[in-house]
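Recap from last week: sequence in, structure out.
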Amino acid sequence: MSRIGKQPISIPEGVEVKIDGSFIIVKGTKGELKQTLHPGIKVEIKDKEILVNLVRGGNSAIWGTSRNLINNMVEGVTKGFEKRLVFEGIGYRASVSGNKLVLNLGFSHPVEIEAPPGISFKVEKNTIVVSGADKQLVGQVAANIRSKRKPEPYKGTGIRYEGEVIRRKAGKKAVATE
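Predicted structure tokens:
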């Protein structure tokens, strides 16, 4: 039995949830999200709550996952999600031009990343903020931005998540003196 799967999901004010066959559609102030339901899961709405149940013979591992995906959809259309990326390096700059993020990362050319629908970029000093309603898409876009210049272990320059700790290595001179 899944402890997470048994918990009901409360539907806040201003959120509309609709179950259409094998799809669940959640609408709110931040947008609309649609998710395909696993065939081993049964979802029903009762008294401003979403109940996720396991169909007889279904896989209990997908039960908790499905419940959390639906919960993230409800949370996304009400509050939204955001990931913060910090970039460090001499000459590294970022700017937003329309719906594109323009990064100068020491390459001979600027790197442009176009925002998918539902994602917005914001740049504050040396921080890039990726925000949107879909948690999975926000995380994927942030990972794509980080992959353009991963943090290197000697100086720590590159793009990293806020709060991420980069393990630093000793350079040649520090190793030679020991």
